[in-house]
Amino acid sequence: MQFLMMRKSVHGLRRSIFCCAATLMLCLGFAANVVAAEITVFAAASLKDALDDWIKIYTTQAADVPAGTRVRVSYAGSNALAKQIENGAPAHIFISADQEWMDYLATRKLVLPDSRRDLVRTDLVLVAPAASKVAINLATDSGTSLTTAMLAALGDGRLAVANPDAVPAGKYAKAALTKLGAWAAVEPKLARTENVRAALAFAARGEVPLAIVYRTDALAEPRVRIVATFPPNTHAPIVYPAAIVSGHDSPDSQRFLRYLSGDASSATWARHGFVPLR
User: Fold this and answer.
1) Cβ neighbours, 10 Å, residue 123
2) CB atoms within 10 A of CB 211
3) 102 Cβ neighbours under 8 A, 6+ residues apart
4) 77: closest CA among 185, 200, 175?
5) What whole-number distance in Å separates Cα of residue 148 and Cα of residue 142?
6) Is the model's pLDDT at 36 over the cut of 60?
7) Nearest to 41 by CA among 76, 10, 65
8) What is the average pLDDT across 47-67?
9) Residues 23-27: what's their mean pLDDT?
10) For the chain, which domains are there?
11) Crossing angle (nearest 10°) for helices 78-86 and 99-107
């Protein structure tokens, strides 16, 4: 009898241990689901410094972001990113440097229209290596005078510009130079790059005498100086829209985009020279 009671006792203990272990595993599994959030963002290359800075704050300080949340970002020209999304790349969020590439995805129903919002804006500037003494006044020069000034500044060198056929920064640059009457003369002198940060790098390394980039790019690179700012009426407003990619709507994506466009992000954007839009 005593032996049977001992067997029942051991059996009951084993059941208790098994139940506790199963409960623990379920809890750990639930916790893993909570903290394992991972968001993939496709963003215009010109956002890198500001967005990297903001993501650090978002993943460590935002009150309702699950611990362990990871945000992966792929930076490139907006055109390249939009094409990748069109071809099935697994992005959750797309941030473009212009409205056109966001429209491109929207017309193909590849972003959620209700999630789309404008985040920030910036300006278009002409930059030179920091030691350069070149002076060009885009506010007063146009036509022949601007063409003469730019060709003189370029000499035997090139004007670094993101590909004006596809990349937003290049398209803005082409529009501005066309408006100012200098495009036809300057176009043969272009050094076309895959994105605006590549154009910035050419000027920073002294490989070109001039480059056209965003003001926020120039502020992030101490090896260049801003020669002049293109007047706003020479190109479309430089606005960065963001949206959730179709098929990737989730509380995590919604939260990320909500914070990105909210009051809490304004200080980070401003610190990097962007003007927040709300």
Assistant:
1) 19
2) 32
3) 82, 94, 96, 111, 116, 241, 243
4) 200
5) 9
6) no
7) 76
8) 90
9) 43
10) 37-120+240-276 (3.40.190.10), 124-229 (3.40.190.10)
11) 10
